[in-house]
Specification:
mainly alpha, 6 helices
Amino acid sequence: MAKSEWIAASEVGRAAYCQKALELKYAGADVSTRAQAARQRGDAAHEAWNSEIKKAADKRCFVASHLYGIDDPRTERLRQFRDRYLIQRASTRLLVQCY
């Protein structure tokens, strides 16, 4: 690899899991079918995990979190009120988005 070539941050991150991968890539080595399949499975698992995280309850409730704490039952009740009532109506949904 020439000194003038840049390495993407994502490649550096992948190299943390497989140090030889970056070296082999720039040496022109072919990726095996088995490795490609493993990568696809890993990408699919990562996407599924990201989807689950997005479905998780929204922890943002700035004022209540500051007053009571992020995991206080009172903060959770305010989040439930927001999710059950406020964001169900268009008129109050905008208010929640601005907050």
